[in-house]
Every structure is written in C-alpha cells, then in structure tokens.
Amino acid sequence: MRGLSEIFFAQTLFLLNGIFMATIHGDEDLPKFGEPIQNVTIPIGREATLSCTIDNLQTYKIAWLRVDTQTILTIQNHVITKNHRMSITHAEKRSWVLKIRDVKESDKGWYMCQINTDPMKNQVGYLDVVVPPDILDYPTSTDMVVREGSNVTLKCAATGSPTPTITWRREGGEPISLAGGREVTSFNGSVLTIPRVNRLNMGAYLCIASNGIPPTISKRVMLIVHFPPMIWIQNQLVGAALGQSITLDCQSEAFPKSINYWMLNDTIITPGERHEPTTYENTYRVVMRLTIKRVENADFGSYKCVAKNSLGDTDGAIKLYHIPHSTLLTTYLPTTAVETTPLIIQQQKENPEDHRHRFDSVASTEVQRDVDLLTKEQYEASSKASRAPQPQVHWTFVVLLIAFSGIRLQTIQEANGFMMDN
Predict the structure, then answer these.
(1) Most confidently modeled range among 287-301, 370-384, 387-401
(2) Strand locations in 136-190, DSSP E?
(3) Model-level pTM?
(4) Which conformational region is residue 224 in: left (phi greater than 0), alpha (psi within -120 to 50 degrees), or beta?
C-alpha cells in the first residue's frame, strides 16, 4: 500500500506542476519534442534503450509511462517503479533515456514519454522483445517404437517470438515418406504423418524450429520399426573340392536385432579350427558368413543360416556338394612284359582340327592293330560311374604304341570334336 501511495503522490505532483507552469508561460514558450521515439527490437536478455528528446523543457517535468498498464516508470531523474531493472539518464541536456536491463518477454509493449504541460504532450515508442525458438517437451513426440505396417504421427511444438516455423528432416538426409507414395527431403508443419511405416523409414527425425532469431533449435526423435527376421541367399548350391577352403554367405534383416547361427544337418555349428562363423551388422541388416577350411567329406551336406528375434524366426538353406579336382582313369596292358602307364584326363585348350590331323596320321600306321585305345564307349561308361558332375573340357588320350623291336610311346591329343565324329 505504501508503494501505491508514493506513486499516486508522484503522479499528483507531476500534474499540478504542469498546470502551474502553464499559467506562467505562454504557448510559444512551451517545450516541444525534438524527434520521434524510435521503435526498438531487442533479443530477450539484452538491454533495451528508449530515448525521448525534448527542446525548451524549462522547468517542466517529463515522465516515462507504460501505456498498457498506465504505470509511471520515471519522473525527471527519479525512478518511480519498483522494477529494479529500469533506470533513467539525462543525456546532452535534451534527451531522457529509459534503460531496461535483462529484457524479458513481458517487457514488450508501448512506452510513452510525457511532458506535464496543460494539455499534456506525449509521444510513444514500441519495444519489441524477440525470443529465439524453444521446443516444448510436451506435446513434442519422444522416441517411438512401432510395428512395421502401422501409421505413425510425429508432433513438434515450439515457442518463440516471432512464432517459429517447424521443419522436419531425416538426420541422414534420407527421403521422408508421405501419403500417396510421395517422398520429400523436408516437411514443413508441426505434425508429420507417415502411413504404413516400413523398415526403410526407421531412423532419426529432426524437428527444427526457427524464427529468424538465432539460434535455430532442433530436437531428435528416433523412430524404431520392429519386424520379424527375413533371409536372402544368393547362392543356394555351392560346390567345393576336398582340401579346399570355402565361404558360405547369407543375409538377414530383423529388428530387434536377431540371434544368428549356422547349422549342418540340424546340428548347430560352433567356432572351431576349421569352421569360422562371422557376422557383419549394419542397423537392422546382418551379413552371415561361414568359412570352412580344408573341406572334408563330412562337411558336405545341407547348411542352414538361422535368424531369430522376439517377433519370429526364419532360416535359409545352402547345399554344399563335392567337386573332384580331376578325373583319373587307368588302362593296363595285357602282357606283364610291358610297364603299365596310367591314362590321365585333364583340361586342355587347343585346336580340335590339329588333334584330328595327328590322330589320322597315327591310325594309318601298321602298328595300329597293337594299340589299346580308350574308346568313346569306355569313357562314357566311366563318366556314368562317377557321381560328381563332369565339366565340359577337352581331353588328352595317351596311346601306348608297342612295336616288336621295342616300346614306343606317342601322345595323341584329341578334342571333343573327334569324339563326336567317331
């Protein structure tokens, strides 16, 4: 009550002094405003300055008032308000400067500089307090966990002066999926709706609030999409030779992260000297690899890569089969006087016409009747006896030529074309 009484008393004195001065001086001697009050825009927390310039003040008094509340703030060099952040200075003998320290948003509004003439003279200036954007914890969305295929709504609310604009972006720059299959790199609006969310929509979303007053602020909202495991296998049939090292590959996607392991004939494979299972993870993607060193007969069979999480499990099959290094056939001579020589079939890359020419020249000699040839029928019979698939190759036949005067060995190379001709 005492504070209100003091303010009322000051206002009364201010008015009475103006009436008294008006009876003494004529209109031509009244004070005048030297220039208009400049509007001021100031960021919150800074110091605001409002200047009122008056010419020929004489013994009149000036006062600063808050227009919206009709509160006297200062009279001459005296601060009337109880707001300790306000002060008054007299500069250059004609300017009366109102200073407001640590400006708050509530200080925004119209301020009046008034001279106590009769009638009173006054002019006003506007103090605009700008506030950087601030994102509210509520109703702004927090991190969300949803099932794949559901609809998702992300919300973002912000305060500030001027009113901030809200922009959504993905942290990694990926496109944002909207209704109708549209994709955009950014979305303006406080509410972002993603229909039928899928695993590609999973990741961090940024709610960015800006109003031209630095700093721009953002909040990170993590969207987590749950789905059961899925498996992709590029090669479901893999061949290997004994003693060879081989690697089996399998790719899976799952979230929450899956448990991954390999099985051979329904038995879980554990890391060992010859078996080395490894995994490479990237968010919800996993590459599973099984390296088998020095393949043995027991390693051939059906392998499974298995992925399990809380939403389900799945597996994929890879069959590992045996491929021989080469085919080995042996022909023995009927007589014990001649040393037997194995007949070896191996891959060659030569001109079939050259083989045919050389074979025809040998066949025309008189020793042909003593030659034990590997015929086409013998080769086909031996091929059928082998379980492994035969590669398409050219063949080398070793022909043993035996003469009465000694033993001659001549090699004849023959291509597949010769076999087809005969």
Answers:
(1) 287-301
(2) 144-147, 152-155, 158-161, 165-170, 176-177, 183-184, 186-188
(3) 0.63
(4) beta
